[in-house]
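Page 47, continued from p. 46.
Same chain as before, 293 aa.
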Amino acid sequence: MRKLFYSISCLTIAGTLVACSGNAKSGDKQPAEGEQPATEKKAPEYTVLDNPQVDLAKFAKDKDGYITIFDGKTFEGWRGYGKDHVPTRWTIDNGAIKFNKSGGGEAQEADGGDIIFAHKFKNFELTFDWKVAKGSNSGVLYLAREVETTDENGNKKLEPIYISSPEYQVLDNANHPDAKLGKDNNRQSASLYDMIPAVPQNSKPFGEWNTGKIMVYKGTVVHGQNGENVVEYHLWTPQWTEMLQASKFSEEKWPLAFELLNNLGGSEREGYIGFQDHGDDVWFRNIKVKILD
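Result:
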């Protein structure tokens, strides 16, 4: 396990620079008499777990270089996020991975939780099919890391996968309220969740299969849906940082998420592929990865 620490050296509030060291510098504006000094927001101490990975050589590869990471019959290579097994709400249904509805939304239950394929990818193209039941919500996570925080009493907590991973949104756009939230439809299917809307929005109705694609290559990321590229963006750039600052993962709102996402994949710039338990029925099949290194 690698210990990582993050702190903010300074914070700008309402145009005022506040020193974070606790010692005022010459020229810094000081709080007026009776005014409470600004409190900086820090990400807590965290650890990135370094769990064993599966050997890709065990998995079938086609003539075009695509590796089948789900054979339609077993969960070989898969496990729960932060777990050593696949939670029981995930089952295999007619050749597809299915999450069976819990109704808990993001409040994941003990027999649920997100799942990951236990191998870290760096430059790759992921292809998959997905479908949802009426009103369902899920997502595909990528470049994810398993992150654990420790509170002031020494208690450890596994942080949710989505604070270290971008999300390809999977949604019934017509019937789930999340489709109308966010900005400019950036929470609809195939969008980079809460940041970039999928254009064109060409998803099929609930109960029908969609094809999805996620390509990551040297920082360029493309989302595809039903044969069209619908999102493109670039990681580890000033523009990526600006998007984070404008989202719910901003430095001010969520310092730990900002730190992890702004430095996505850590120094190796790699991470896991995962599927989200959002409490709703969702299916994934024909899951393949091509290494682009």
